[in-house]
Design goal:
mainly alpha, 23 helices
Length: about 525
Amino acid sequence: MSTARGERTSVPTPRPPASGSSAAGADSHGLDEYGYAPKLERSIGSFASFAAGVSYISILTGTFQLFYFGYGTAGPAYLWSWPLVFVGQLLVALVFAELSSRFAVAGSLYNWTKQLASPTVAWIAGWTMLVASVVTLSAVVLAFQLTLPQLWSGFQLVGSADDPVSYALNAVILGGVVVVFTTVVNAFGVKLMSRINSTGVFIELIAAVAIIVLLAVHVKRGPDVVLDTRGIGVDHPGGYFGAFLVAALASGYVMYGFDTASSLGEETKDPRRTAPRAVLRAVVASFVLGGLILLLALMSAPDLDDPLIGSASGGLQHLVLSTVGSGFGVPFLVCVVVAVLVCSLAVHTATVRMAFAMARDNNLPFAEKLAHISPRFKTPVLPAVVVGVLAIVVLVVNVGQPQIFTVITSLAVGMIYLAYLVVTVSLLVARLRGRWPRPLPDGSPAPFTLGRWGLPVNVLAVLWGVAMMVNLLWPRQEVYNASAPFHWYLQYGAVLFIVVVVGGGALYYRLRLRHRSGVLTSHAASAGEGA
């Protein structure tokens, strides 16, 4: 049973915890403000929260998966896109840190926007992020194909790695196996996920530092290598700048997902203080370590003219192995595999929390089942299974598509940046209308606030989001249909996909879901207190 409500723009009136429920009220961290009863297990500590954000960004996954694309498109000078993207994403992270300090609730982007804008805008933000996260999970697991066959040829289960179709098919098979693993782990609860994720992130951080040290030992040229364009851009529309904008996607594809720490707010200890720190630390740590790996890799590469450096079958994996030797390189590639694994796990976890948050408000089909918390595992099991199945479907649909890597990644990241933009625009509108900053229900300020810097940071975050959306979704043939056969619907695939998914979803919400939207009785604060 749900509470029917129409479109509204007002903020729900805070309500104090009911008497007789001191335990629930003490651990609610403001959930009663939204009318929710605390159902998820609060067991995530400070490092685990930080690890969730870092593992989603995943320095080793992103840099090793996409280095070849950036280098092959714009040469060593593409590295300038790394600090450029960092500055832009730091602006967004600061906005998210402020929001996570005020609203410590699952499905962060969806629930934040629900407090800032209309229910329709909130649903679009949540729906966009939900679909994007499913596609992102499919995109991340494809990274195993870029590393495992280089560790052992036996991981090329079908055909030859030299055949683009077999290469893509093998990526789907390896990715499908990993999705099954992340589904099982997420179904068994957040404690198991947190332990595996934190261990994997610890290994990833140690490996990143070790790779930096070893590459530094093998340096062959100075840092001025980042000024080398390799003569690229002569025949490119827009010259080198045009090529650079395309290559910048390699950095834009990496530095996102830091909101995962806030999406686990209901399962985090002292979330209003822990989540903002985790969000910002994840972005900064990823920028520093990832940037050093990329810079030192270029400075230590034995031969910058090696065609494999700019090839999907070689890339940064090949560069590391050829630089430090297989004796050291192979163990580090194993660490890359671990990083991709925990990245996949974090993406799956964040997607489950978004599905749960929307279902709890009766804003998804079969909401009662999707919002059900397992009494044994203290986690929503069905969303974990559904997300896993959908991610595998995305992979299977792309069987036989050699361009699967760039197409799926571009679709996923474009939609995530769109969801981020919806949040930053919603907050900016709230600021301009005098509805932000908003104190906590007890009247005290949130632990983290941007103060007088809030408005300029918010404005710049919105401008950055618009610029990235244009660059990500621009229908370039070299990104969305780089090889034959050439079809207009492939080149415009990202734009068409987003229009259909977001537009169709919004229409479905307006015509059907919004009329029954409301907190499920089983998750209402009064029900939790009565229990």
